[in-house]
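Minutes, project check-in
Item: structure for the 328-residue chain
Input as provided by the requester:
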Amino acid sequence: MWKYVTKRIAQSVVILFFVSMIIYAIMRCLPTSYIETIARERASLPGAKSYQEWLAQLNAVYGLDCGIIQGFFQWVGQAVRGQFGDSWYFNVPVTQKFGSVIWDSFYMGATAFVLQVIIAIPLGILSARKQYSKTDYAITVIALIGISLPGFFFATILKLIFSIKLGWFDLYGKVGKYYDQLSTWGQLLDVAKHMVLPVLTLTIISIGSLMRYTRTNMLEVLNSDFIRTARAKGLSESKVINKHAFRNTLIPVVTILGGTLPSLFAGAMITETLFQIPGIGYTSYQAMTVGDIPFYMFYMTFMAALTLTGNLIADVLYAVVDPRVRVS
């Protein structure tokens, strides 16, 4: 197992290197850069140098006056030492800005993920057990609605009902206007209250695919020979489902769950923007639109590393949920 994991980590490092190179090349080719904005602002000051002079000077300072390959290796040389530079747009170290916004997105994503697993997997199993019944059709409709309709639609509907009509939650924001006057426990509840609608939005749009995936795999397992043998032995239906069928259903579901690791840290750009939650999704969108190369390079490389890690975890978990699978 350890030999396999070490080999996969080595492969992941190579893949991450080339993925980072592609990301860097794309960022360098963007039609806009925050350097140009700074140069334009400084050139507009009384008695200042021309725009082209400022642009050349700033490009030299930030290493953008060399080719893409040379610039990438300069970035890699600093990155392996943990130096990712300062964000051009936010004017703070990249890691500092990243650390200040990542946790809001993580708490939202982790909560939505737990709710997704708790809701989608049991409903998918129930739908498979009651195939072609009213329960199956109802669950299928719910799943298709979650898959088909976009997140901004659900967010708008939830805000209309629970914020405007009922007045239970604020329309936007991470905290209320009286946040500073509350106790520690009150502040925690205030933040939790503001996260209800964003988390509910993320949960609704994510349960559909996992629900359908679980149902499909459970139907395949229930039609297997070993399930018929277990029933022929006189085992109760609950033991057949929970002990024999469910564990085999988990094998393909692990693939889905392993791939959700990046989503816990990726943030939800549309949801965070609609509810004005200062998470990593909205922050990275701002960095990309203004051409903040240092911040977006770190963010995209971090996401690529998480994706590779999620795939490795999924592969290892195969051997955990299925004794027949052995890593060689």
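Outcome recorded: The two ends are 7 Å apart (CA to CA).
No further action items on this chain.
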